[in-house]
């Protein structure tokens, strides 16, 4: 069987979703870890150094290309699957099944994903565009010039309640998206052993809540002035 | 359980044929015994309709023992009605109270076109089976039962998957109209047994190809299929099918 036919089948398309989904989950771990440097309480020195490494070193830059590819594949394939799946039932039911048998968030991955896409556009415009394209103000650390991404974060979040609320909505969407997506990805890739599935499901719930909460705390703590 | 008599209001989907637009019709039914099965209740209504010179409601049924997979009906927002691990024919009227309104719809999926009223064409499932849901053996006298050793645990999993009666409730319940639970049950049942091994790659590839051709949606692991399956087929089978399919596709002609 040709790879094109394999990855265009319904199962193959879901495999793409699962693989890119797990790749994006791994990216979230890196992202949340690096960003946690804002809580070093050192005026952003550690965070700016970490951001500098991510921007200047060739390995993260190459990974960044992979990340964009992963995001695009996940988003486009997700939308395309959503359309195919919706089209499979032209005439719907008068009485909907609702939550009898499935969770609302497992049925809302398309909408949650779209919210995340909108968040992503805003997020890239806030930080990726200035740090890679339009440029950031420099800051001196140990006599060396660094991009002041930390300063950019402060200026985006401090005093901007609307932005902080939008970021929090983004993080809540992420939590629900992951709540289903984390375990679903492993099922799609073929994990059928009930013992491992139970572990994956529990890990997924913890991961979804913790990672989204830590992300949400970043703009909140800057807005609230918990970081000096 | 105490026996009681009830009066009900039924809202039933009526559709003359595949090309008719269809509509809901409301019927009051009286004097229904709590001991009756759901289909017997429809029989009572149909007798009444016949006496009045009206067209009876067309619906699928055969064994009325919960094993043939013919009965369907999407009842008050759930395939096969409110009971767990149950077919419509084994749903009994004690599930309802006097004065209840029951909405009855056919399975809804493009791949299951309505033939008439509550009857849908589930031929798509037959074509998926024809694509690979079998093993090729020379006919002859029956093989001795224990000639091929089968691991007990695998035999149990295979049996649980083989319990699928192909009723299509999984498709009816799925928001994507996906047939993955059905196909997964058939693929798992054979893949787990030594008799199914020689053709397992070809089987997974052909059955999924046919499933896609029939226009069923993709699986998003919501679990609605498992929740309504009258035979309690586990969604784990879908994960197994995902694995079998991709391994077959990636490692073909190795």
> What would the average pLDDT of chain A be, to the nearest integer?
95
Overall form of chain B = elongated
Order of helices and strands of chain B: EEHEEEEEHHHHHHH
Q: List the strand order in the largest sheet of chain B.
A: 2-1-5-3-4
Structural class of chain B: alpha+beta
**CATH topology tier name of chain A:** 3 helical TM bundles of succinate and fumarate reductases
Radius of gyration of chain A: 20 Å
CATH superfamily of chain A: Fumarate reductase/succinate dehydrogenase, transmembrane subunit
The tally of strands of chain A reads 2
Spans where pLDDT lies below 50 across 5 or more residues of chain B: none
Cα radius of gyration of chain B in angstroms: 20 Å
What low-confidence regions of chain A span 5 or more consecutive residues with pLDDT below 50? Answer: none
Number of strands of chain B: 7
**Residue share in β-strands of chain B:** 5-15%
Strand content of chain A: under 5%
Task: Specify the CATH class of chain A.
Answer: Mainly Alpha
Largest interface by Cβ-Cβ < 8 Å: A-B, 45 and 53 residues
- Main sheet specs of chain B: 5 strands, mixed
**Which fold name corresponds to the CATH topology of the largest domain in chain B?**
Fumarate Reductase Iron-sulfur Protein, Chain B, domain 2
Task: Give a concise summary.
The complex is a heterodimer of chains A (228) and B (254). Chain A is mainly α and 228 residues long. Chain A is built from eight helices and two strands; from the N terminus they run αααααββααα.
């Amino acid at each position: 069987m040709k790879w094109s036919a394999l990855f265009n089948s319904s199962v193959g398309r879901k495999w793409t979703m699962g693989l890119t989904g797990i790749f994006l989950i791994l990216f979230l771990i890196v992202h949340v870890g690096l960003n946690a440097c804002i809580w070093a309480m050192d005026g952003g020195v550690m965070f700016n150094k970490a951001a500098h490494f991510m921007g200047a070193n060739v390995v993260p830059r190459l990974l960044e290309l992979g990340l964009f590819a992963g995001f695009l594949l996940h988003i486009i394939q997700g939308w395309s699957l959503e359309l195919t799946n919706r089209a499979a039932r032209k005439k719907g039911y008068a009485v909907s099944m609702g939550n009898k048998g499935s969770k609302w968030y497992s049925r809302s991955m398309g909408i949650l994903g779209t919210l995340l896409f909108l968040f992503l556009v805003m997020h890239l415009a806030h930080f990726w565009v200035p740090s890679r394209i339009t440029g950031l103000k420099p800051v001196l650390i140990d006599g060396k010039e660094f991009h002041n991404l930390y300063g950019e974060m402060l200026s985006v979040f401090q005093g901007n309640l609307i932005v902080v609320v939008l970021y929090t909505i983004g993080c809540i969407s992420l939590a629900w998206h992951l709540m289903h997506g984390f375990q679903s990805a492993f099922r799609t890739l073929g994990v059928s052993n009930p013992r491992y599935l139970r572990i994956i499901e529990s890990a997924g719930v913890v991961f979804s809540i913790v990672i989204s909460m830590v992300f949400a705390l970043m703009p909140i703590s800057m807005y609230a002035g918990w970081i000096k | 359980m105490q026996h009681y008599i009830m009066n009900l209001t039924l809202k039933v989907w009526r559709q003359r044929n595949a090309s008719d637009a269809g509509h809901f019709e409301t019927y009051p039914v009286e004097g229904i015994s709590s001991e009756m099965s759901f289909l017997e209740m429809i029989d009572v209504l149909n007798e009444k309709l016949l006496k009045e010179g009206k067209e009876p409601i067309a619906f699928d049924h055969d064994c009325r023992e919960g094993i043939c997979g013919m009965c369907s009906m999407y009842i008050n927002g759930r395939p096969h009605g409110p009971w767990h691990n149950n077919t419509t024919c084994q749903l009994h009227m004690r599930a309802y109270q006097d004065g209840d309104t029951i909405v009855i719809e056919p399975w809804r999926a493009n791949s299951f076109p309505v033939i008439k009223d509550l009857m849908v064409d589930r031929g798509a499932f037959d074509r998926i089976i024809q694509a690979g849901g079998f093993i090729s053996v020379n006919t002859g006298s029956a093989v001795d039962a224990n000639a091929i050793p089968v691991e007990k645990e695998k035999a149990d999993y295979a049996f649980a998957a083989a319990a699928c009666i192909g009723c299509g409730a999984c498709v009816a319940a799925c928001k994507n109209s996906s047939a993955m639970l059905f196909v997964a049950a058939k693929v798992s049942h054979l893949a787990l047994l030594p008799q199914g091994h020689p053709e397992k790659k070809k089987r997974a590839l052909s059955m999924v190809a046919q499933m896609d051709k029939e226009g069923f949606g993709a699986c998003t692991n919501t679990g609605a299929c498992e929740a309504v399956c009258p035979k309690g087929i586990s969604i784990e089978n879908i994960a197994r099918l995902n694995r079998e399919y991709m391994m077959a596709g990636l490692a073909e002609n190795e």
